Target: ATP/GTP-binding site motif A (P-loop)
Amino acid sequence: MIIIGLFGKTGSGKTEILEELKKNYSVVDIECCANTRGSVLGDLYDLKQKTQSEFDNCLKKQHEFAKNKGYCIVEFEGRKIGGAEKIDIPEPYSSLEKYSYNILIECSYDSQIERLLRLYIPKNDFEKEIAINKFLDLKKAFSKPDKLKILDEIIFLVQNDRYLEASRMIEKELYSEHYLRHIRKVKHDLLVENNNILESAEIISKYVDKILKKHEINP
Model:
């Protein structure tokens, strides 16, 4: 089976692009199966993360459909997904070596931060408390003093409604290093500057069509 991977930082628009691609192509949606946006803050507010068993059942159905089609498009998430409670992602989707083609999604820093704010900014005091508790829970997963200090600073910023500063710190200190580690490991066959979701999805669609034609596969 041909696996076409989408790579990029949190906030680059991968999930929105994948939603567009679902309309015409075989997609394995790991975030959807886990019911989380994928990052350490992915299960905030309205999302309740699935159990490992629920995730496995959902992924198995999508995997079987993709195998029958002969290909799939998938957002690379690594070996695990989720917040404090991690869900294990099985092969082939957790292994970079299994990916046939790699597409890197990039966007401007301002667009990335704007998207993070849109996803994670609390809409009321109840959601604000949820966000603060999430960072308090995350402190249990870190042992290095510098990381604990960063989380304390983020909590302070959220408590004082300084969400833009908090988003910038979250991106820099919690997201960038993790995603860049994966991005540097793979050769990217296509680079998409995501300035518009529909236009980016169209660029990727044309690229995927070429791949499928090359391998004599119907979308």
About this structure: The helical segments are 14-21, 30-34, 52-69, 109-120, 125-139, 145-159, 163-183, 197-214. DSSP finds eight helices and seven strands in the chain.
